[in-house]
Write a structure and sequence with these properties.
The termini are far apart. This protein is 52% helix and 14% strand. Strand 4 and strand 5 form a beta hairpin. The protein has helices at 4-12, 14-20, 25-33, 52-65, 67-83, 88-95, 197-202, 217-245, 258-287, 292-319, 330-342, 349-361, 365-375; strands at 103-106, 113-117, 120-130, 138-144, 153-159, 164-166, 180-190, 194-196. The strands form two sheets. Strands 1-4-5-8 form a four-stranded mixed β-sheet. The radius of gyration is 21 Å and the shape is globular. By secondary structure, it is an alpha+beta fold.
Length: 376
């Protein structure tokens, strides 16, 4: 867990991250020192082989200081979990010098092309929305094999020095993530720096792996993706509460208003409920047997939690006075960040509900219906 002083540094630079569309170097250094990048790295390479519940708590804490920093740090951890699927020589190349290696990734949807070459592949393509690419040391990029070879998707590890960054990120929220476009131009990737995307989706199956490396990607993806929004919503409630404790024109406290009191009750309950859902999901990811019901239940809880958090910050934003809603203020940024997190495809309720219903009823009919509705 980052220290109090580290979180203070992250919070101090949150407005500039939003303005500059990237994390300050000192923030990158603090997050790296806190161990986010090494959280899932195998112990053999100096990592922690950590659990999902501790990471959720850590990311939420960083999210209270800066949602963009929390998002990037969470992804460093998640991408190291995927990189652990590389062959032995590839893992040595990544972590032989240090487990604190920052990895960005572009995995969904796959893009570009990979054609076989002697001892490996020639990789070409561009991948949008690659969070933290400016501060990454490696990129994991998913690309399909040639159709004549089966068209299977593989994940390739590319050193940052062989990746170009196109400045394309100018989103409403999570602006500090610097989620620009990564461009790779005919780079050779040896076999030991590649693995199948199917292995990532199902989890590793080699003997002796830690649990965090054997579970499917979707088991804890949703809760971890939602964790920055949980922290940001908690901070939004604190900012709003400072305003509510102050006095309105005429000298009466803002919280003398029934609307303000109702907002406090509902927003705080929604945020607490979201936290409980996410904490339970992370605990289950660490401990319970992996079944389709567990995976889709965790996906459901993350999507519902995201909805609760957006509802909470919407209420805070609407009820706060003009000053607390100032365009350059903390509440405005936090509101934008929570909504941007909740808009991620992993946290969309419609496909998650279809998958959950399919597991619950033992049928794929809801999933087919959902896909058809999205295609129109």
């Amino acid at each position: 867990m980052p220290s109090i002083s580290a979180l203070g540094t992250v919070a101090e630079h949150a407005p500039s991250a939003d303005r500059d569309r990237r994390l300050a170097e000192v923030v990158v250094a603090e997050l790296t020192s806190a161990g986010l990048a090494r959280h899932f790295v195998p112990r053999r390479w100096g990592g922690a082989e950590g659990g999902f519940a501790p990471l959720l708590a850590e990311v939420a804490a960083v999210g209270e200081a800066c949602a963009s920093a929390a998002w990037v740090g969470m992804l460093w951890a998640a991408h190291a979990r995927y990189a652990a699927l590389l062959p032995e020589e590839g893992r040595r190349e990544l972590w032989g010098g240090s487990p604190d290696v920052r990895i960005s990734a572009a995995l969904m949807p796959p893009s570009g092309s990979a054609r076989p070459a002697g001892g490996g592949w020639r990789l070409t393509g561009s991948w949008a929305c690659v969070s933290g690419i400016d501060s990454a040391q490696w990129l994991l990029a998913a690309a399909p094999e040639p159709a004549e070879d089966g068209g299977r998707v593989r994940v390739f590890a590319v050193p940052a020095g062989e990746v170009e960054v196109a400045d394309t990120w100018d989103a409403t929220g999570l602006r500090g993530t610097g989620s620009h476009t990564a461009v790779v131009r005919d780079v050779f990737v040896p076999h030991h720096r590649s693995f199948s995307q199917a292995a990532l989706l199902r989890g590793g199956d080699a003997p002796g792996l830690a649990r965090c490396h054997t579970v499917p990607a979707q088991l804890a993806g949703g809760p971890l993706f939602c964790a920055p929004a949980l922290g940001a919503a908690r901070r939004a409630l604190a900012v709003w509460s400072q305003w509510a404790a102050g006095k309105a024109p005429g000298g009466r406290p803002h919280h003398d208003s029934a609307t303000v009191r109702e907002t406090l009750a509902l927003a705080s309950a929604y945020i607490d409920a979201a936290g409980l859902l996410l904490e339970r999901a992370a605990h289950r990811a660490d401990t319970e047997p992996v079944t389709p019901a567990l995976v889709t239940g965790n996906q459901r809880d993350a999507a519902v939690a995201a909805g609760l958090l957006t509802d909470a910050v919407d209420r805070l934003f609407r009820t706060g006075g003009a000053h607390v809603r100032d365009g350059g203020g903390d509440l405005n940024r936090l509101w934008r960040d929570v909504h941007t997190v909740a808009s991620h495809g992993v946290l969309r309720l419609e496909p998650v509900a279809a998958a959950y219903a399919s597991a619950a009823f033992g049928t794929d009919a809801p999933a087919r219906t959902s896909a058809a509705s999205r295609s129109r």
